[in-house]
Amino acid sequence: MLLFDLYRLLDFALTLLLLAIFIRAILSWVQPNPYNPVVRFLDRVTDPILRPLQQHLPPLGGIDLSPLVAMLLIEAAKMLLHRLFFGGF
Questions:
Q1: pTM of the model
Q2: d(CA 83, CA 11)
Q3: Angle between helix 2-27 and 66-86 (nearest 10)
Q4: Which of 11, 23, 43, 76 is surrounded by the fewest CB atoms within 10 Å?
Q5: What pLDDT digit, counting tens, does each position of 43-81 carry?
Q6: Which alpha helices (DSSP H) does 1-89 contain, by range?
Q7: CA pair distance 47, 87, nearest whole angstrom
């Protein structure tokens, strides 16, 4: 029971992170106010993941692909987490 709760907590945290990256990517299209508390929170939460990716992935035609790569990596981590907790394929 405790392992299942731990799995749910980690899965929920990764899902929230995925959502934060998605919202930040959408907001980047409309140039939000950088002093808005929501925008600042999203930046603080997602920067540790996106910055290293941005350093290694140059923009492709002016489009930053780091949110897409980060979201794919988070989904892969969620699948790995499921496999570690429950086994199987």
A1: 0.90
A2: 12
A3: 170
A4: 76
A5: 999 999 999 999 999 888 889 999 999 999 999 999 999
A6: 2-27, 37-56, 66-86
A7: 32
